[in-house]
Amino acid sequence: MDSLINQDRFDIEKLHPAIVDYIRSIGSGQLFALTPNFYGTGVYYNKDLFDKFQVPYPTDAMTWEELMQLARRFSPSSTSSYGIRFNSANSSLFQLALKIGANNDLKYIDLEHKRMTLNTPSWKNIFQSVFDTYKEDAIYQNSDQDKLKPGMTYQERLLLNPFITNQVAMAIEGHYFMNDLRLAEELKPEEVPNWDVVSLPSNDDQLFSEDSIWIQYMLSINSQSANLSAAWEVVKYINSEEFTRVTLKSTLRDSLPLRRSAMTGDSHNLDAFYKPKMNPYQPQSNLRLSHRFNELLNAYADTEIEKAYEGSITLDEALSSIEQKGQELLLDKNMSNAQ
């Protein structure tokens, strides 16, 4: 598409540069597609709680350890609130540690060599940090209260959110959580806290962060198309400033536009979703782990890490045991699909 972009002087410089660069990396430097929107995740924080207990606000350039240290400044016993709530996908100690490790460019499986790489000092430090934060009662754990009950409306469920009810100082949520907060403000403006958002922690000051931003689809044009010009006009319009402003008016919008300049009239730190970068595309290994592998390893690891947290075994023993179990599963031909 580079020639078409240059020919029409399309203002590609106004699109999210990290996503444009990522798409270029897929095409080995050539831009073969565009996408008008993306999805992002950030750290929302309750400014009222931070102000009340004189805790410094989180920032866009934090590391995961710095975020955990901030979370440990809050606990139900000392501040009547938890430090942080993670989304349900990271509900176990093991899954939370894996997420943090991924954001520090750590891999727990070397697919190319079919080798587990979890039992290392770097991974141990991450698990220990998670343990410390849990032990200080700083992490909110989902309960029955967080489940949607029969007959409960979306609005009722929304107003029980622990971040909205001042039970947690920080929450890791997608960009769509901003819509939830705005709706809650309309329903009960006197109860919703003052809030803002920062980017997910990164392992360096370049803000490369796993899971911070991702794209769902891309629009490309077949190079052999008989209607190349017409197809380009469609792609160009869908990625234009005009179309972006039209879609921003939709109440069904569930994504962020690549055009940051279109996001006006909001005093919150929306740059939290536009600062992070995406790691360049890397071809996947020809080895694919089966769903059964992940299911068995996660169940085993959850149990072992829970034992280590409770003190019945050491963390070293847990990591060694998980690595051994994972290695057995990796070598089981029924647990992978070579392509």
Automatic annotation (TrEMBL):
Signal peptide: none annotated. Transmembrane segments: none annotated. Keywords: Signal, Transport. Gene3D superfamilies: Periplasmic binding protein-like II. GO terms for cellular component: cell envelope. It is found in: Cell envelope. InterPro entries: Bact_solute-bd_prot1, SBP. It comes from the Bacteria. SUPFAM superfamilies: Periplasmic binding protein-like II. Belongs to the bacterial solute-binding protein 1 family. This is Bacterial extracellular solute-binding family protein.
